[in-house]
Amino acid sequence: MSVRLCPVFLAALAFCFSVHADSPLEKQMNQMRRSFKELKKAMDAPVEADKQKYLGWVADLKKASEEAKTMEPEKTEKVPADQQKAFLEGYRSKMEESIELTDELGKAIEAGKWAEAKTLIGQINQVQREGHSKYRGKEH
């Protein structure tokens, strides 16, 4: 049995995915995801000689987080107008929490405090999960 999908449907579907994937916020989130993934993997068995590489990822993570903090999640449109201000304040507060932890991570790595850095990775991961569950749309 063969299933044929309407070309218009396929084009609309492709458009929807490209809009979300190419949004400025999604680009920043993807950069954050890449940098964090590298840091998480590296902190499993950190190498002192790679400290500068790790600090580069921290800088990338922080920069993307700061950019993302200034943007509005797509989910904002789905929040009732009278609740949008509080929603955005909560989003920005969660992003600020992530940025502060990222700063702490950078200091821990700079000092070679690898156990502390690994703990901070876990804390950043938790903040990320909390933020995504509240501020990221269901389509992701």
Kindly describe this structure.
This protein is mostly helical. It has a single domain (24-135), classed as Four Helix Bundle (Hemerythrin (Met), subunit A) (Up-down Bundle), CATH 1.20.120.10. 74% of the residues lie in helices and 0% in strands. It contains five helices and no strands. Helix 2 runs antiparallel to helix 3 (51-69) and helix 4 (84-110) runs antiparallel to helix 5. The protein is elongated, with a radius of gyration of 18 Å.
Name the CATH superfamily assignment.
Cytochrome c/b562
CATH class type? Mainly Alpha
Strand content: under 5%
* Count of discrete domains: 1
Features:
elongated, mainly alpha, 140 residues, single chain, Four Helix Bundle (Hemerythrin (Met), subunit A), 5 helices
Summarize, please:
The protein has one domain (24-135): Cytochrome c/b562 (Four Helix Bundle (Hemerythrin (Met), subunit A), Up-down Bundle), CATH 1.20.120.10. Helices cover 74% and strands 0% of the residues. It contains five helices and no strands.
